[in-house]
Amino acid sequence: SLSVGIVGLPNVGKSTLFNAITESAKAQAANYPFCTIEPNVGVVEVPDRRLYEIARLERSKKITPTFIEFVDIAGLVRNASQGEGLGNQFLAHIREVDAIAMVLRCFEDPDIVHIEGSVDPVRDAQIIDLELIAKDLETVSKRLEKVEKMARIGDKKAKEELEKLSMLREILEGMEPVRRRELAQDVREYAERVLFLLTIKPVLYVANVDEEGLKGNEHLEKVMGYARNEKAPVVAICAKLEAELVSLPAQDRKELLLAYGLEEPGLNRLVREAYKLLGLITFFTAGEKEARAWTIKRGTKAPQAAGKIHSDFERGFIAAEVINYEDYIKVGSISKAKEMGLVRLEGRDYQIKDGDIVYFRFNV
Ligand code: GDP
Fold first, then answer.
1. Is the Cβ atom of 43 under 6 angstroms away from ligand 1?
2. In this predicted model, what pLDDT tens digit does every residue of 244-258 receive, in sequence order?
3. pTM above 0.90, yes or no
4. Cβ(112) to ligand 1 under 6 A?
């Protein structure tokens, strides 16, 4: 499943947030189909009311949501790429995640030391990016050395690669994360899949505010301004409150949320934003036995979506019976929707939409 790495300077609230995530994961453990979970990995349900509505209306016996992984990546400090602190082992962990949630301290608390001496989330974000940029520069330079030699002896492919590398180096030498630039498709793929650059991974900023800050504070404002430059999402949460919420029984949780004027835990927003950031959408399958949510990349066509369920479904794909949740919920049942002719028959070129309820027809 897709994973999001939680990074940030020390004392910004990463562990508090991560603990809230794993606690909520434990509560959902019964739902979780995979068994071994590493200590620094928290697997959480992607909250989706639609799935529960579908299950209720179809009287499904079992409900299976989709999940997203959060990985706690500790050890980032200024000059970490030069071996400060725990060294740069953690950079390898960042390489393995699909997106980065950068936790920024946006709360004042004289009792909690800030490693940089003051609360300044934009500076913190820049420190982290500089570490990632330094590592990427190292990656690019090493590769450049090799490829330059190959180009000198007339390797044509090497020359093409050289161009890409020079372009990437220029961006990084300008102290800019690669993700901020519009890149040609081939350069992007090269940076992602050949070099595994860190600064090309999509980022979402988690502004850790105190309880009062949930309505906004000056630090949060600055983070929003900063994030706008790269069109990155910002999720304001209070990690401390999240940790408290997961420890409460459902009724008390509701009351505490209400007291802060919140509709749902910040964790839900975080998960949804991460999901969006990764370009993911959900489709459903539903019947008496089970109502289930499935995750696919936006743009996935019907046969490949079917393949998520079973490779036979993809191989033997004939057609997909589809109704979107918006239409479904007006009618209230799949069988009624069928009677009314609202369930469409789609072929192999159909791109599954978010919220589609799908029944695949296939040959065995
Ligand atoms: P980490 O080093 O980034 O993992 O940070 P921790 O999660 O260990 O948090 C550092 C300290 O800040 C702990 O004492 C937390 O209780 C505290 N903390 C975390 N979030 C908040 C918050 O939203 N408000 C306040 N006042 N303290 C917080």
1. no
2. 999 999 899 999 999
3. no
4. yes
